[in-house]
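Service request form, structural biology core

Requester: graduate student, group of Dr. S.
Request type: structure prediction, single chain
Budget code: on file
Notes: please return the result as structure tokens.

Sequence provided:
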Amino acid sequence: MRKVFLKPVLAAIFFLLLIPGFSQRPNIVFIIGDDVGCNDLSCYGNMKNIATPNIDQLAEDGLFFSNAYLTTSSCSPSRVSIITGRYPHNTGAAELHSPLPANQVLFPEILRKNGYYTAQAGKWHFGHLPGKNNNDTTGLGPAVRAFDRISVSWSDNGDGGEEMWVKILRERPKDKPFFMWFASYDSHRPWGADKFPGKKASTDEVWVPDFLWDGSRTRKDLASYYNEIMRLDSYVGDVLEELERQGVADNTIVIFTSDNGRPFPRCKTRLYDSGIKTPLLIRWPLHIHPSSHTSSLVSIIDLAPTLLDVAGIPAPATFQGKSFEDLFYHPDQPFRTYVFAEHNWHDYEAWERQVRTLNYLYILNKRTQFDEWGPADAVRSPSMRELYEAWKNGEVDEKQMNVFVKPRPAEELYQVSRDPFQYRDLAGDIRFQNDLYRMRDILKQWEDATGDDCPAHLTPDQFDRITGERLTPTIHWGEMPGKAQGADTITAKGPF
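Core staff response, request fulfilled:
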């Protein structure tokens, strides 16, 4: 009787194993844009002003995250945070260009050790800056051990660094699952996509945020930025097409996100949603229903344990995030209560911390003596120059005034459920004092648990705050936040 019963069961299992992807670990393609703001994709609401059909297709085919957040709005610290699954001050590389310590564990490295073929193409910037020979990995730091193949690109000629993506997909070994880290230079300044074939943004149709000056130079600046994103979108389409051509699309997880907000005043480096809220789209046809949507809070450090989870690999204790794989199947369930972010040196001295819930955003600032125009490339931008001239002429309104405020408040509080762009600071409103105290306490718990601190001697300004021009030829490093606490070895997650 037992043998008779087992025959159909074994036959069913054998049949399932023949289904492509059923018995295989998923392939993973991670695509990260450079300085792409969350509100600057058509699937995230900018439908009238920009065309991103391939990125939109990812949203239509997969899971759309409406509340995904970065841990910092700064290039290399954000990428290091993603690849280690740790907060910036816990990586030991919290500041722009600061080298990644060799003691950090990288999730692609774990995938590689567990049988995945891993490759990187495009922008590197895991703290270290590469030489300009695409085949030279000298000076790239310990992240090289995470990849079987590395193809670093530069953007001196205005390209976006995406030209190798399809080539690497085609040349991969066919007997292993694969992980690809595809990193674009689009939409980092300087712009180079205005001459790229295809649709171009119109200066008449761009969306000018209320905190920028609506002038001709700003509109041209935004149009060029949109063109960068549309060029990136075309390369995303090439990747999706190649996965289909190879017959591996169904069991390939495709992720699209960004490292920080758009390179404009009040965006990149800032802790408002314009700086740290990120697009996050995940497609996995075998397991994620099309047009799925989650409004649950997630942090970008949750991505590393999630990807190991779906690959069937235990996450190391070093990861400070948690797997959100359950959201693939139950997108309506809650996940996080809090997300945290930080602003450290990025061209200019800074120390800010943030905690966010679905309803409130709290910011703590220990360098209140400085105004905050953004990073040096934003300070030099036509948008900032036009806004600066309007400010000097006394023409800006309260929203546009934000970047010029000095001294800045030590604490800010926003009710984001009613103020999604964070224009009305409620820290001084007596009606919200209990909310202020609660958010302040949560942030302090996170600082204590993760070993965060504010050193007396932070890295000083390297650029002029008015002109954006370089002050010193080299960076005069200060003390890294958390170093005195040994934060790069701390594994505590803090409040979740």
